[in-house]
Design goal:
Blueprint (H helix, E strand, L loop, with lengths): L1 E4 L3 H4 L14 E9 L4 E11 L5 E4 L4 E4 L4 E4 L5 E18 L5 E7 L3 E15 L2 E14 L6 E3 L3 E5 L4 E5 L7 E2 L3 E4 L3 E2 L5 E2 L7 E8 L5 E7 L11 E2 L1 E10 L10 E11 L5 E2 L5 E3 L4 E5 L5 E3 L6 E2 L3 E3 L6 E6 L7 E7 L3 E7 L4 E2 L4 E8 L13 E6 L2 E3 L4 E3 L2 E6 L8 E8 L5 E11 L25
Parallel strand pairs: 7-8, 15-22, 24-30, 32-39
Antiparallel strand pairs: 1-2, 2-3, 3-4, 3-5, 4-7, 5-7, 6-7, 7-9, 8-9, 9-10, 10-11, 10-12, 12-13, 14-17, 16-20, 18-19, 18-21, 21-22, 22-25, 23-24, 25-28, 26-27, 26-29, 29-30, 31-33, 33-37, 34-35, 34-38, 36-37, 38-39
């Protein structure tokens, strides 16, 4: 058996224009097939052929078919003489599409001596386990039953023949609506659509849910089954616009006429340097820092008062207070919450003794970080102390002592009094607090260090930079 392989369709776009000209014989343009005695067996990724005159043939994995290269003349009405290309389907699921102004037709030969002529529109066939189903999804198709005369098959109808029965019925209808989170916010620029569901369709044997990338039109993920909930969920996807497409399958395996489609979106939320998302999902920022929204174009937002407006590309922490922003797809009844709050991490600074006299006393500085809300301090938030004596910046070595940073300043002689100030910032230069002591000038001598009560200086810290 011979195997034929072609470049994916996106790769074909890079070929010279001559290579993309309409073929003179039916040509395989996507996927792989293995040629055998019964026909060509389609590989695991499916396959597609372009037929001269405009029609296309798409086959699912495992289908066995043969598309004859030589056309036959067809007279489909007064003056309606066209070329007909014969498609023999042995088994599997195959779709034929043809534009309204197609210059050729496809003659389908199906198992059990049934057939069809597809003039334009969408035609589907499913053949398996002794059952053959032929459906006119839309357009103009004529049906032949057991080599009988061709008669029109109405759009939206499917003819099903089993070993014991045969007859026509309407194709299954689409689900009516999708429930669940259609808009996702992600701090990692990737997210997973899960928990989406739809109402069951009477008489449906199953569903096929496809996740389509709106930017490329490509199906990036799909699931099939009888469930009406995406329990298995799709794989994680990156920031962007998507569509959920849900097809209904009737017992013959033919999908419904038109799928239910609904927009989906993943928005990336990027915190600035020093900003972070706490365990409760609240974004913690410093004053005047901005939260960047990637992929929010076209969305609507509200601040809880008034109406909805177009979503902006960033949100600023303009006040030292909690802020809640609502985001939704245009016109949607559901929304997601994005919460922002000031940095809750603060420094606890101990300077002892509080009543220091130089050159009598040495100064000990101890610093640790805490979150008054009870949340753990993120590991990436580090205390960066800066020590100034009057207007002079001192180089003070600090060493880790458990949860504390500890530094010691030797006493000075003469020139007092002094003001010793300690400022603590994080890595993005956001203030985490400050404290200071006044140092008196006195006679030489030594003194035991005075005990100090830990002093959280949150009351001295504001959101403004100092």
């Amino acid at each position: 058996m011979a195997r034929r392989t072609v470049l994916p369709f996106l790769a074909l776009l890079t070929l010279a224009p001559a290579a993309l000209a309409e073929p003179t014989v039916p040509t395989l343009t996507q996927g792989t097939v293995t040629d055998g005695v019964q026909g060509s067996e389609v590989g695991p990724e499916g396959a597609e052929w372009v037929v001269p005159g405009g029609p296309r043939v798409r086959a699912e994995a495992g289908a066995v078919l043969r598309l004859h290269p030589t056309p036959q003349p067809l007279l489909l009405g007064p003056g309606a003489k066209v070329s007909g290309y014969t498609l023999i389907v042995r088994s599997g699921k195959v779709e034929v599409t043809a534009p309204r102004k197609a210059r050729s037709a496809v003659v389908v030969v199906a198992p059990r001596k049934h057939g069809a002529i597809v003039r334009h529109g969408v035609f589907r066939i499913a053949a398996h386990d002794g059952t053959t189903a032929l459906a006119n999804v839309e357009g103009e198709t004529s049906l032949s039953i057991q080599e009988g005369p061709y008669r029109p098959l109405s759009a939206g109808q499917v003819f099903v023949a089993t070993p014991t029965t045969q007859g026509s019925r309407k194709l299954a209808v689409s689900p009516t609506a999708v429930q669940g989170p259609r808009l996702l916010l992600s701090a990692t620029a990737r997210a997973r659509f899960a928990g989406l569901s739809w109402e069951a369709v009477p008489g449906a044997a199953g569903y096929r849910a496809e996740l389509v990338d709106e930017g490329t039109g490509r199906v990036v993920a799909h699931v099939e089954g009888a469930e009406t909930t995406l329990a298995s969920s799709f794989e994680e996807q990156s920031v962007g616009r998507y569509r959920l497409r849900v097809w209904t399958r009737d017992p013959s395996g033919i999908p419904n006429t038109q799928p239910l489609e609904t927009p989906l979106r993943i928005v990336g939320v990027e915190a600035p340097a020093g900003g972070y998302r706490d365990p409760a999902g609240v974004y913690r920022l410093g004053l005047d820092q901005r939260l960047v929204l990637r992929g929010a174009e076209g969305l609507e937002m509200s601040f809880g008062k008034g109406g909805w407006i177009g979503a902006s590309k960033s949100l600023v922490m303009s006040r030292d207070e909690r802020r809640t922003v609502l985001l939704r797809l245009p016109g949607a009844s559901d929304h997601v919450l994005l919460q922002m709050a000031p940095h809750s991490v603060r420094s606890v600074i101990e300077i002892s003794p509080r009543n220091a006299v130089w050159p009598r006393d040495r100064i000990e500085i101890r610093i640790r970080l805490e979150d008054p809300t009870g949340q753990p301090v993120p590991a990436f938030v580090k205390a960066n102390p800066r020590v100034r004596l009057n207007t002079q910046t001192l180089s003070v070595p600090f060493a880790r002592d458990g949860k504390w940073l500890r530094g010691v300043i030797a006493p000075k002689r003469g020139g007092g009094p002094w003001v010793l100030r300690v400022d603590v910032e994080d890595g993005s230069r956001q203030s985490l607090g400050y404290d200071f002591v006044e140092i008196a000038s006195g006679p030489s001598g030594t003194s035991a260090q005075t005990e100090v009560t830990p002093r959280a200086i949150v009351r001295r810290t504001t959101a403004s930079r100092r």
